[in-house]
Write a structure and sequence with these properties.
alpha/beta, five-stranded mixed beta sheet, 10 strands
Length: 210
Amino acid sequence: MILCDIGNSSINFLEDQKFSSMNVEEFLGFQSEEKIFYISVNEGLKEHTAAKRNFINLEPYFQFDTIYSGLGIDRVAACYTVADGVVVDAGSAISVDVISNHMHLGGFILPGLAHYRKTYAEISLRLKCEFNTQISLDALPQRTVDAVSYGTFKGIYLLIDNAARNRKLYFTGGDGQFLANFFDRAIYDKLLVFRGMKKIIEENSQLLFS
């Protein structure tokens, strides 16, 4: 069974616990005869995937308890196996979703770390720098690179910590493992979205494999 998570900048696959990734251009040339179960937030690729008879869109099968309007299917899948906690998907954007007793209470979205870095560089060349990933959030910075890093990470940390209110934190996405290091009660799960996809397949196996 092949699972496929189609994002805006990258497409991730999981086959027999083997994870792989490709960019959009590579995906447009991708060929396979096997049945592929997918979710997609990429509007530009929806016609491309819909035209492939072996690609099965899982989005219609998700039944998710939320009043949030327009919640992305990637966020739904990431939250689907979490009964209580806060799900943080840190990729091109950082989405934060709060779950209580299997109910989605709401969430918010921040720019991804790469976009923070790009924004600083657009403000001033003096602010164009790589983040200091070893920065302490407990002491005020004394140089520009640390000030940029602190302003980014501390702001993200405070927003997530305030939303968590002592709930367990589940991080996923390309920058998820790094951000999880700032929290004591955090779990990093690279395959969290795929676990949600697997669960929905198990719940609808008769329909999907008939």
